[in-house]
Fold this sequence. Notes:
Helices cover 80% and strands 0% of the residues. By secondary structure, the chain is mostly helical. Helix 4 packs across helix 8 (148-155).
Amino acid sequence: MKNKDAEIIAMMQNPRTLDQGLRSLMDAYQSRLYWHIRRIIVDADLAQDTLQETFIKAYQNFHQFKNDSQLYTWLYRIATNEALQQINKLKRMQKTDEDAEYYMQNLVADNSEKDAEEIQLLLQNAIQSLPEKQKLVFMMRYYDDLPYEEISKIVDMSVGTLKTNYHYAKQKIEEYIKDNYEK
């Protein structure tokens, strides 16, 4: 991937190949970034919009890429910031937390026919109930299997703090599932 990244960076830095570089950048990272964003935002359409905003920001600000980190680390940071901005917009637009809780409880109740589906929903609900930092760290570590060092660069947090956040997130998720799973 490093050779591909070097090629993409070279194209993005050359005004004549900038558009081709953007297409290569999107081809290389679209899927990974989409699923990263999707785990933060959950809504597929909003995640897709956020992905497009991520690539627009990357295109507009590529001159700020210093090449002191990996390309995907830089992109993940942009994607994470964009996703968090979307979440903040959604929070401002939501009526109340009670409405969201009612919806989530009904969603679990409607889908409790299969244990595996119920546990999956409980997992998603548990993740969504985490504080923002713990949610981000958990998703990047659990779903994306990113090393703590890369997550540290993305969220601008020390590795020790990340490990602590991940540990607490795992505990809260386990407790949430135990407390809410009905056999």
